[in-house]
Amino acid sequence: MDVITKTTQTLQPPLDDLSLVETYMKLLKALKQEWVDVGILTDKDHQATIILLLEGTRVVAALRLLLSAEESRDAVALLVQAGKIYLRNHQQSNFSAEELHCLSALQEKWDSVKGQDVTFSLNEVGEFFSKIESGCRDKGRGEDFTAETKRQVMLASHGRCMFEGCGENLGLEDLSGHGGNFAYLAHNIASSEQGTRGVPVLSGKLSNDPQNILLLCDKHHRLVDKVAKAEFTADRLARMRHDFTVSVNQLLDGIAFERVPAYAILWPVHRNVISAPSPTQIAQCLAASKQRLMGQLHDLSDNEGMLRDLDPPMIKQLMPEAINAAADKLFTQLHNSRYRSALFAFGSMSALIGLGARLGNKNEITPMLRYRDGGQWCWPGESPVREFYEIKGEECLGDNETEIVMHFTFTAEPAPFKAYSDEKAKEGIKTINVTSLGGRMGNAAIRHPVEGKWFTKDLQGLLLRLREMHGVKTIHLLPCASNAACVFFGQAYDANHPEILVYDFEDTKLHPVLRIYNEQHRCKVSAYEAC
C-alpha cells in the first residue's frame, strides 16, 4: 500500500469505531505526516462529510467516519489536538466517488469554498454532527446585520451592485435622478439553517459576518433569493463577491499608479480578427505593473484589413514590412513618453518575436498577455514567481557549434519540433530547449509582467553565451508560446547575438519565415529567402 493510499482513507470504508481513528493517527505519524488543523467538508444536502487534515492551507490526509454525533465530535477532538477546526460546505454538487478517492480533488473542493471559512469549537462540532444525523434544523434567522457590518459591506462594494457584470450605482435612481440608498444585503450562506443556502450551525455563525454578505441591486437581490435561488449557491455567490472586490480594488489602486500610454498592434491570425482590450481589461493588465492608462488606447494596426485578405505566401513577404513599420511608428509616438508604454500585441508567433526584436530591451515597452483560458487580456498571476522555465541542452554544446536548433516551448511541445531536430541531428546540429516547467506549460506560462522581464534578461545572457562560448552564428528557432512570451523573447535580442531564423508551419511542415540579424549594430528583420 503506497503513501497516497494510506493518507487518503476515503478509498476505504468509513471508520466505524473510535479506536480505528486512533490507529489511523498512529499510521500517519509513522509516515511522518504532519498536520495542525482539521477541516470538515460537506457536499450538497450533506450527502457526504469528509474529515480533512490540514497543514496550513494544504490538505495532507482525508478520512470518513461512520460514528454517532458524539463519537464524531470525539474523533475530531483526537485529530485536531492543539489546532483549529474549520467547517465548509460545497453546495454546488454532490461529491462523486472519484472525487472522494482523490486527495487533489478534495483539495480543489476545499479551496473552492474558502470564502465561508470560520472556526468551530468542539461543542459546535458536536451540534453540527447531531443536526446532520437527525436532519433537524433551527427555525428562524440568525443575528441581524449590525451597523458596523453594513458599513463594512458598503465600503467593500463602494456602493455598487456586486452581482457579476452589473456594478450598478446603488446611490442613484437612474430614471428620476434621485439620490438615496437603493441597495439590498444578501447572504452567501443563508441566515436561516432552513434556507436554500442554509448550513447547520454555520448559518448562525456567519449571519452577521461581512465576508458572507453581498450588496445587490433590487433586481439581482430578487434573482438570487426568489427567482433562481437554487442556481446561486453559496459557493457561487462567495466567488462573485471575491472577484468583484479584487477587480474594484485593482481599478481604484490604479489612481495612484504611474500613467503610461498603451498601444495595440493586432495582426490577424489565419484571417481571424483579434479583439482589442476593453478599458477594464487595460486597467487590470496595467495594475500588475502598478501603472494606469494615460489617455486612450492607440491602435497602430492600420494594415490589419490588408493582411487579413492576403494569401499566406504574400503575408510572408509583407510581414517584415508591417513589423518594421509598426516598430518605427511606436518609437515615434513614444518619444515624449520616455519610451515607456504597455503594448497589446497579437499576431503570428514569428511576427511577434520579430516585433520584440525590433523594439529591443533598452526601453520600458511591456507586452501584455491575451489569456486564452480567460478569453480576455489579463495577467492570471497575482505576484511573480522566479522559477517558471528551464533551459535544457546547453551543457551538451561544444565551443564551435556554428548553428543550433532552439525549441521555445511555453504553450506546448508539437511533435514536428522533435522530428525537425532529429533530422538536424543527422547533420551534427544540436538542439537546446527553452521550455516552461511542467505545471506552467500553457498559454499562461508567463503569468505576470515581471516574470516576462526576468525571462528577457535571462535569455539575453543565453544568446550571448551561445555566440561567445559556443561559437553559434545561426539559431533555428521553433516557437510555441503565447503572444506576450513571444514579444518578451524577441526583446532579448541584442548586438553580438547570433542570427535567428524563426520558423512557422506552412502546409503542416516547418519552414523558416523570418530572419532576425544585426547590421552595423542595428537589429534587422526581413523575410527569409532560401539560398
Descriptive tags:
single chain; 7-stranded mixed sheet; 21% strand; 531 residues; alpha/beta
Radius of gyration: 29 Å
Mean pLDDT: 89
- Report how far apart the termini are: 63 Å
Helix-residue proportion:
25-40%
Structure description:
With 531 residues, the protein is of the alpha/beta class. It folds into four domains: 3-134; 147-252, no CATH class; 255-371; 385-527, no CATH class. Helices cover 36% and strands 21% of the residues. It has helices at 3-7, 18-30, 69-80, 97-100, 103-112, 122-134, 147-157, 202-206, 218-227, 234-253, 279-287, 304-309, 312-334, 349-359, 415-425, 449-468, 483-491, and strands at residues 37-42, 49-55, 58-63, 85-89, 119-120, 184-187, 213-216, 258-260, 262-266, 291-293, 298-299, 340-346, 364-367, 370-371, 376-377, 389-392, 402-409, 431-436, 472-480, 499-506, 509-519, 522-527. The chain has a seven-stranded mixed sheet with strand order 16-18-17-19-20-21-22, sandwiched between helices. A five-stranded mixed sheet has the order 3-2-1-4-5, with helices on both faces. A hairpin with a 4-residue loop joins β14 (370-371) and β15 (376-377). α10 crosses α11, α13 packs parallel to α14 and α16 crosses α17 (483-491).
